[in-house]
Amino acid sequence: MDFPSTLCLNQFQTALNALASIAQHALGEHGLNSTSEGKPSMIDAPAIPLKDHGLVDTRAVDEARDAIGRIFCPHFLSVQDQDGGAFHAVHNAVEQPGYSVNFVSYGAKVEIDPGELSNFFLLQLPTAGKANVRCGSRIAEVEAGRGGSLLSPTLASRMVWGEGCEKLIVLMRRRAVEDFFESMTHRVTAPIEFVPAVDLTTPIGKSILSHVRLMFEAAEGGGAVPDPYRVMLRDGLISLMLTGLSSNRSALLQGPVAAAGPLSVQKAEEFINAHAADNIAMADVAAAAGTPLRTLQEAYRKALGHTLSEGVQKARLALLRSLLTKPSSSLTVADAVLASGFGHLGRAASAYRTAYGETPSETLRRVR
């Protein structure tokens, strides 16, 4: 089967940058992974990602196969090293809305044969070592910093992980991906099957790496990071996958975008303003507007000069300002921030100051 080439990213880059900026507002106050310059780092610290969320830690092959099989799906697992002395299975994981983030390593060289995954896509990004991944009739050579892999649920998969191979893995629920595709195209989707190789040296590959880093940092943040941000991260990765990676459905996302009328943009704005404090997914906005998401994204940007994600951010800031300028006697800044859909006081205050030239505390003091 021939797959279309990778799509042009220009019309999506602004939206993705905005999403990353919004997601950072949810992450910055928890001392999560960062470099000495203060920039987030995917793997530098902690040394073992999700180390406080361990599910499997064993040197027994049968135990590892059964335990990891319950987390992902039943599979065959065999150690390829002669003595098997290096085998040490570690699997850390955190469940998120419509996906999970996972860190997996086996120590030794192993062969893994899960067959068809059925209910999920599996994005695998190595942080150390190499692997050979077969999905359907295609093979991906995986190496830390250079190449990852994306397994599709309807294609049989088999992998050989080299000794010392470690991976960050994002499990995306099949239903979430297919629902997002339908919201973008207004077409009932057939099985989506991606080319398994993910080149991490390209702009789209680097964007995926950056996005997965944010997803892991959100998971490390625990309950302090609210679900609306996790949903934005999920939808952002699905958008990157569908629009940036080649699949058997890519042709439906290529070509000119049908024009959406002003009424669709108006409906989208009304929905965003009415639900600013809620857990908003971009697919929900498109459904409210009665327009395919891809069409709405383009029309919204042209009409208002900013992306849908930025529109949600603006609506939440406007709600926060409204609460602060007409406060009840007992209202605190923290109460107003949470009631406006933000999850972190410091980052919300920074965005608020950029938008209005004063901090939330200054606004509240001024009106009282």
Description:
The protein is α+β, with helices and mostly antiparallel strands. The protein folds into two domains: 10-244, Jelly Rolls, CATH 2.60.120.10; 254-367, Homeodomain-like (Arc Repressor Mutant, subunit A, Orthogonal Bundle). The protein has twelve helices and twelve strands. The strands form two sheets. A seven-stranded antiparallel sheet has the order 1-3-4-11-6-9-12. A five-stranded antiparallel sheet has the order 2-5-10-7-8. The protein is globular and about 75 Å long. Mean pLDDT is 84; it is low at 1-16 and 22-46.
The CATH topology name of the largest domain reads Jelly Rolls
Oligomer: single chain
Low-confidence runs: 1-16, 22-46
CATH architecture tag of the largest domain:
Sandwich
Overall morphology: globular
Question: Over all CA atoms, what is the radius of gyration?
Answer: 22 Å
How many strands?
A: 12
Number of helices: 12
CATH superfamily of the largest domain: Jelly Rolls
Count up the domains: 2
Give the strand order, joined by hyphens, for the main sheet. Answer: 1-3-4-11-6-9-12
Percent of residues in beta strands? 15-25%
Q: Give a quick account of the main beta sheet: strands, pairing sense, barrel closure.
A: 7 strands, antiparallel
Share of residues in helices? 40-55%
Just give the CATH class of the largest domain: Mainly Beta
**What's the SSE pattern?**
HEHEEEEEEEEEEHEHHHHHHHHH
**Mean pLDDT metric:** 84
Structural class: alpha+beta
